[in-house]
């Protein structure tokens, strides 16, 4: 069964997570310090990491930054802070989800299952081809996107979101449709994160070319991709 590493310094919170996850058939390990987490992952990478932001030794954000230097284990942040900036920072440095305390342990377990399903290895087809649109080039076989000839450093979510938009440019996608493109059920509670991922993706595109904003917002509807001067 999938192994979940829980890094949380409050024993009561860790106990509720352990119970909920083991009830769903997962195996778990509990650690209370960030450095112990880094050492543990280097020894044996778990299937998913539930990581508290406010650890006693080093912050969960710093732990995640260091993890991303050597592994791509899925990460769910736990935090008492619900500010948009905190969510965006967490997602930008490579987290897969962000859960605010207090939370439902059953909801966290459901999110764990959804993420593990989403990141499961997929079959690579030998017929994968490049998709080009305006200044974008999508290589679905290598999970890479080039923008104005420059390779973008994207998280899993950002790559999939941009892929969905690129495959049907100018189509307006609702948040629910974008969730579906990520392989996430619309009732899984991820809608609030779509905007944060779009914001992060826009920032990375602006770093390449600040004069264009190809991701369009349609208030009350969703998002589309349309480069300036196109039709």
Automatic annotation (TrEMBL):
Keywords linked to the UniProt accession: Cytoplasm, DNA-binding, Phosphoprotein, Transcription, Transcription regulation, Two-component regulatory system
DNA-binding region(s) in UniProt: 128-227
Organism of provenance: Pseudomonas segetis
Pfam families: Response_reg, Trans_reg_C
Any one GO biological process: positive regulation of DNA-templated transcription
Gene Ontology CC, one term: cytosol
Native organism taxonomy: Bacteria, Pseudomonadati, Pseudomonadota, Gammaproteobacteria, Pseudomonadales
Database matches in InterPro entries: CheY-like_superfamily, OmpR/PhoB-type_DNA-bd, Sig_transdc_resp-reg_C-effctor, Sig_transdc_resp-reg_receiver, WalR-like, WH-like_DNA-bd_sf
Entry keyword annotation includes rRNA-binding: no
SUPFAM superfamilies: C-terminal effector domain of the bipartite response regulators, CheY-like
Name of the protein described by the UniProt record: Two component transcriptional regulator, winged helix family
Residues of the Response regulatory domain: 3-116
NCBIfam families: PRK11083.1 (NF008296)
PTM-bearing positions, type 4-aspartylphosphate: 52
GO molecular function: cis-regulatory region sequence-specific DNA binding; identical protein binding; phosphorelay response regulator activity
